[in-house]
Amino acid sequence: MHEPATATAESTPEAHFPFDSPEYGVQAFLFWEPDLAGDRLAMVRKMGFGWVKQGFAWRDIEPFEGAEPDWWKPDRVVEQVEAAGLKLVARLDRQPFWAQEEEWPPLENAPPADLDDFGAFCGRLATRYRGRILAYQVWNEPNLSREWGGEPPDPAAYTELLRVCYEAIKAADPEALVISAGLAPTGTGLPEAMPDDEFLRGMYAVGAAAYFDVLGLNAPGYKAPPELDPDIAADPEAGYGGNRWMSFRHVEDMRAIMVANGDGDKQIAILEMGWVLEQDLHPSYSWFGVDEAQQAEYLVGAYTYAREHWQPWIGLMVTVYIADPNWTPEDHEQWWWSIVLPDGTPRLAYYALQEMPK
Questions:
Q1: 333 contact partners, CB below 8 Å, separation of at least 6
Q2: SS3 label, residue 54
Q3: Per-residue pLDDT at 8
Q4: Which long-range contacts (CB under 8 A, 24 or more apart) does 197-200 make?
Q5: pLDDT tens track for 178-218
Q6: Cβ 29 vs Cβ 325: under 8 Å
Q7: N- or C-end of the chain: fewer Cβ atoms within 10 A?
């Protein structure tokens, strides 16, 4: 059986573990709804969670080339998070259309034609919010083509993007934490995707370790309970999908790659974790859905398992989501992952996480 990845033998006195092990976060959507943001942040606070993750889309802040950035919305988000007594991790991606290789057709998420443009944005952001935004996530799921401008994922190209942003942030705010992009667990190969373990090895091969303080991962649980051994998830007869990456504990496989590359003295941040609810509208992902009681049980179990087995190398763990007010069950898969509905109604998982020992 695959044993839980521990850190006692692989960590040194020089290890840099900036997070308590673990710390508790949730992803929210505060940018476009100023009247609702305070209520949503109060819900995070009431959960006993200390961190909120929010997207700071580059195109929303610098929509026009050469123009003064639009700081109104990010200023307000930072102020509201501070007023709630919470810490902020900002996800940086979503290029302005002027910055992509060709301005038409517009691409949802693509690396810029000139990486220095992105580096300059990262530097301006870190300068303005020095000491206030404590952590930055640089991009999201670059091992998926749909998050990389429709091009085949390329760990070397992502590492270059990470480097320019890391260097700019550190020049402006040396104490800010830079977290590498959450990688999506997948078994799909090129050109549509690259398995996250393969992508991470590719990042290490080109020197990415020098350009992040904390490794970012995404860890959806699929059908499996959080404590399930990845060996069991990989058994096609077990009913969990037949792949190791379809278990929450696939994080341990990724941790082993860190250690093998001499990077065991860093922590991991799980930037997206959760279990999707079963339903009949979307068969493409309903096969691994769980009911609301299981969603609640499994989320609490994931934090408990990490606390009991992954200290000290597990850092921030971010649950998805405090829902965007505009999501609908028909059009947004995220609606089925959320622990709070778009109208602010908590699901069972919200109450379970609120009551969970921390």
A1: 276, 282, 285
A2: strand
A3: 39
A4: 197/245, 197/253, 197/254, 197/257, 199/142, 199/143, 199/153, 199/155, 199/158, 200/155, 200/254, 200/257, 200/258
A5: 999 999 999 999 999 999 999 999 999 999 999 999 999 99
A6: yes
A7: N
